[in-house]
Amino acid sequence: MPYKLGPRRKIDFKLQGSRLITNISNNGSKYSDPKFTIYVENPSTFIDVSRKKEEEIQHFRMGYPVSVEERTVEKEQLVMHDEMKTMVGWTQNGPNTDEGENTGTLKSDGERFVIDNFGAGSKWHGGVARKSLKEPLQDFTVEAIVECWNQNSAKSMGRVEIYLLDVNSDVIGKMVMAEVHVNVASNYGEIRAGKVNEGHHIISTTGDSPWTWNDFTGRLRITRVGNFWAADIARILEKGGYDSESYREYFDVDERYSKNQLAQIMVHIGGWKEAPNLNASINDLKVWKYNKTTTLEAPYIVRKGDVVEIDTADASIKINGKDAIYTKDLFGDFINIEKGTNQIEIFPSDIGQVEVAYRERYL
């Protein structure tokens, strides 16, 4: 049966004693599908959302609480976060980039890494900068926030790349956003396990259309745990959040690309021959280490600074814009706001700031 939607309403949860709770009066004709947004201030192994209306109780859970025998551990441990405000700690040399020459230099403008001098070359050419991790990592996630502005001219070409290097500076993976097309603006994203001409392309696309990632500001992310690889490219919206996402997984069954440990990160901005150069930058770089857990250890599913979105309308869970449906308890329900007065409570109560947005429905 068709229905009309009322205006979007947003309510912030408030601490009432030791309870993080709110009461919502739904004056519509039927239930509403809410979206909960949680700005995490304290790490937690779980998040519960509970709704009570008279004697009816509905419960949602992601993760699970810790028992008295268990101890909490940080499964994903942030081991490097560089805001790219300075070149201190970076070395402007490294192995040659894929099909390129390191003839230029990079610099920080105080907010991000940008090109200082492209140099010159008969193919790809530009600057690189390399930084070592405190320890080599077997299981990891690397995430970079980059920009690649390609629509000033259809003739402009260029690339911004993140290389994953082992202790011998051999390439074990790469992430890139680039304009490689002649006479047309069409940014291309690539995330690869292994070396050029030998590796496996987990993502290699312009997105859903040839123009999806034009004038790109967004994230490039690669994960390796055991022989499992995951790749993610997504645009960052001006008001926050992500869209135009491409996510792919890959199992390196023969372990061709999963043995060498990650020891260094190398970043690169380059141009093509004498083609007009585009504007590109590396704005932020993070590396996480994956810690192995035992049966008596409960991993944190969220950390301080994370943003969790639980959307009943499309039955989705996202953490920092990335799909996290795997954290949902199988026996829990996505919360509805029923007609009438609903009491909704969040656990743990010190998780952080929580808001719920919804629209009433009218027949």
UniProtKB/TrEMBL annotation:
<dbReference type="Pfam" id="PF22768">
    <property type="entry name" value="SPP1_Dit"/>
</dbReference>
<protein>
    <recommendedName>
        <fullName>Siphovirus-type tail component C-terminal domain-containing protein</fullName>
    </recommendedName>
</protein>
<feature type="compositionally biased region" description="Polar residues">
    <location>
        <begin position="89"/>
        <end position="106"/>
    </location>
</feature>
<feature type="region of interest" description="Disordered">
    <location>
        <begin position="88"/>
        <end position="108"/>
    </location>
</feature>
<dbReference type="InterPro" id="IPR054738">
    <property type="entry name" value="Siphovirus-type_tail_C"/>
</dbReference>
<feature type="domain" description="Siphovirus-type tail component C-terminal">
    <location>
        <begin position="278"/>
        <end position="362"/>
    </location>
</feature>
